[in-house]
Specification:
By secondary structure, this protein is α+β, with helices and mostly antiparallel strands. It contains 28 helices and nine strands. The chain is about 55% helix and about 5% strand. Helix 8 runs antiparallel to helix 12, helix 14 packs antiparallel against helix 22 and helix 26 runs antiparallel to helix 27.
Length: about 700
């Protein structure tokens, strides 16, 4: 009797809590009663996510069952279009949750991610491995030549069919179970990989208390470091591994030992043998991807990935990377020799190490061009830059941006805008999230909370977000961007335009849903305007005096634009070559991750190896960010953008006709056609690497 009397109140309490949870409305499962149907971030709580995922998976499963059990013969509309539309609620919830998990995460969000990730993976496996559903898709695909489909419809059919075959639909029952297990483990490992990098980045900072240790550092960085220390209840200055702090420190600090300490801490993230170590995870991901690819009939994972890319094959990618490396490496080596002599002339007697390069390179640039990034920052106040980019988009594409504080946000730092086109046409909503914080991953990216599509004749406009880690304002100074941050802003805005200007029928083909080695063209081409005087003159004024950016300073920017171009090229190529190394294996990697990386990166090395550091274990692009066997795409897109921007240079950087052609043939089309067809329609020719090499000063 006693146990029963003790348990009864608890059971009643639990029943009441369960009833309350069940009856309480879940904003993720309701229509969004917000401006333009934007996510109701002000209502969404952690506890809403898991029930929403489960309910949406159940709803999506019923929608797919309806397609399977449709007694009518399979048609393009009742099978292919129905598949494109099925599971829309789950897609919305995924877009919200996983984007917030990157931009504003915490331990609860990460725990939810670990719980829902296998559920979502299993849901998609249930779709693509369903024999009856695949049979209907095959029936439609077999009729494709007689269906009189337009280009976009044909692309959707092709993509749907390949989506099944490339996800295990043709496997036998035993291999399907193996595929399920692999995909589930890969999803879990990718999450863990990303979590570990964030934890490692947040775990360490350099705490200084002596003023002499600040020698060489810009006043703006010192003020930022003081603000960080204050936030940690510390005296002095704290320097984190966040990009807006780390890179200026490495560039300007006169204290070589402190630069070395910062470098080693940054380079050893997730490589310390602790609970956040990624060594085994990286190797396991690579080996599982190989197993998955070979299960599907491919020799390597790169063969599997590149089948659906512009490059088509690993051989072509490797030839492309090696061509650029052959052009870049001799120049980079010569530049390093010049830098070594320069450092020696300043009294440096040691070997140039990785933590020395940025420091002496900046000193040499100052001497050679009488220019450094600190001179430019007062003219690049973040709000002015933002308005300048808005004006650029207005000149090119007729867009207007109106801030709307009624659109809910997931963090107070986030600003939201309505985007309008000519003729008062609503184009979408834009979220701008600029500054580093504990719950945000490093780097910069564009993402979408909702994709553009046409449903029942209505053009559903997208919700696009740009997330960055820019220099933060201090108590006395607004956010002043470096030139690198300006180009990053333009880069991500190019991605945003790809989403905002999309004008297609099917969401799975809209915006940035294109080949990975094509997706960087709209972003890379935007970077070109950063070095154009006509563009800088639109907005670049001194944040204190209002003085317009001096013409001679712009001339120095242009003159120094190719400074260290060869080194930067080799650095990017090293990432692409390492990526291809990991994903071109034909048998499992058994050696230590460090041994493997050193072998693959050897042709690109300019400096001595630093023991205890490793790039692969923090290479989130390829192990958790969707760029596996695809990092070469950044250089590939540079070839495209160098060739494409030459048309703007010829016709005028604000030329409406050129902009309209780029919008019509590239930005609005999404993935509805093969990207080379779209590019040739815009440019009139296929690109070559010559334009890139000439622009970088690596070829005459």
């Amino acid at each position: 009797m006693k146990p029963f009397k003790f348990l009864l109140p608890i059971l009643i309490s639990l029943f009441m809590m369960n009833c309350s949870t069940k009856n309480e409305s879940n904003p993720l499962l309701e229509d969004f009663k917000t401006p333009f149907g934007t996510p109701p971030f002000h209502l969404i709580k952690h506890e809403h996510y898991l029930p929403a995922f489960k309910a949406a998976i159940e709803e999506g499963t019923k929608e797919h069952d309806a397609i399977i059990n449709n007694p009518e013969p399979a048609t393009f509309e009742n099978t292919i279009v129905a598949l494109n539309n099925a599971g829309n609620r789950l897609t919305t919830i995924q877009n919200i949750f996983f984007n917030i998990n990157e931009a504003e995460t915490d331990e609860k969000m990460q725990a939810i991610a670990r719980e829902v990730s296998p559920l979502v993976t299993e849901y998609y496996n249930d779709i693509y491995l369903n024999e009856k559903l695949f049979a209907r898709v095959k029936d439609v695909y077999a009729q494709r030549t007689s269906l009189n489909l337009n280009i976009e419809q044909n692309t959707l059919l092709e993509k749907t069919y390949k989506g099944f075959t490339r996800s295990g639909a043709n496997l036998n029952p035993k291999d399907k179970e193996t595929y399920r297990a692999i995909s589930k483990e890969l999803a879990e490992l990718s999450l863990k990989f990303s979590e570990n990098i964030l934890a490692e980045t947040n775990a360490w900072f350099l705490h200084l208390t002596k003023k002499e240790d600040l020698s060489g550092l810009p006043a703006s960085l010192i003020e930022t470091a003081a603000q960080i220390a204050k936030s940690k209840n510390l005296e002095g200055w704290a320097f984190t591994l966040d990009a807006p702090v780390y890179w200026p420190f490495m560039t300007y600090s006169d204290k070589r030992e402190l630069r070395k300490e910062m470098f080693i801490q940054y380079g050893s993230r997730a490589f310390k043998g602790n609970q956040n170590d990624n060594k085994d995870i990286a190797k396991r991901i690579a080996n599982l991807r190989l197993q998955e690819a070979q299960l599907l009939g491919y020799t390597s994972y790169s063969d599997y990935v590149l089948e659906e890319r512009m490059a088509k094959s690993a051989e072509k990618v490797n030839a492309f990377l090696n061509e650029l490396l052959a052009a870049s490496m001799p120049v980079a080596q010569k530049d390093l020799e010049t830098l070594t002599l320069f450092a020696a002339s300043k009294g440096f007697t040691d070997t140039i190490q990785r933590w020395d390069f940025s420091y002496y390179a900046e000193k040499l640039k100052e001497e050679k061009y009488q220019f450094n990034e600190e001179m430019l920052k007062p003219y690049l106040q973040l709000d002015s830059v933002k308005n300048g980019i808005f004006l650029l988009c207005n000149k090119l594409y007729g867009l207007s941006f109106v801030e709307n504080k009624e659109i809910p946000v997931y963090h107070p730092d986030v600003k939201t805008y309505e985007v309008w086109g000519e003729g008062k046409r609503f184009m979408g909503s834009l979220y701008l999230d600029f500054f580093p914080r504990k719950g945000k991953s490093g780097g910069a990216w564009m993402t979408s909370f909702r994709e553009q599509e046409i449903v029942n004749g209505e053009n559903i406009r997208p919700h696009v977000s740009i997330v960055c880690n820019f220099t933060q304002p201090t108590e006395t100074t607004p956010s002043l961007l470096t030139f690198s941050e300006l180009t990053t802003f333009l880069h991500e805005f190019g991605h945003a335009l790809h989403g905002l200007l999309s004008d297609v029928t099917y969401s799975s083909l809209s915006g940035t849903n294109v080949y990975r080695d094509f997706v960087e063209l709209p972003s890379h081409i935007m970077e070109n305007w950063a070095k154009e005087k006509e563009f800088l003159d639109l907005f670049a004024v001194h944040y204190q005096t209002g003085e317009k950016i001096p013409a001679e300073l712009i001339e120095k920017i242009i003159a120094a634009s190719n400074y260290n171009a060869a080194y930067q090229s080799v650095r990017q190529l090293s990432f692409g070559i390492t990526d291809m190394g990991w994903h071109s294996i034909t048998s499992p990697v058994e050696v230590d991750v460090d041994v493997f990386e050193r072998e693959k990166m050897a042709p690109t090395e300019l400096f001595p190896i630093i023991k205890g550091t490793n790039q692969s274990v923090a290479f989130s692009h390829i192990f958790s960010g969707g760029y596996a066997a695809g990092y070469y795409g950044y250089k590939w897109a540079e070839v495209l953008d160098a060739d494409a921007f030459s048309l703007f240079k010829k016709n005028g950087i604000f030329d409406i006709n050129t902009a309209n052609a780029f919008r019509e043939n590239i930005l609005s089309k999404g993935g509805t056609e093969h990207p080379m067809d779209l590019y040739v329609r815009f440019r009139g020719q296929e690109p070559t690497s010559d334009a890139l090499l000439i622009r970088a000063g690596l070829k005459k």
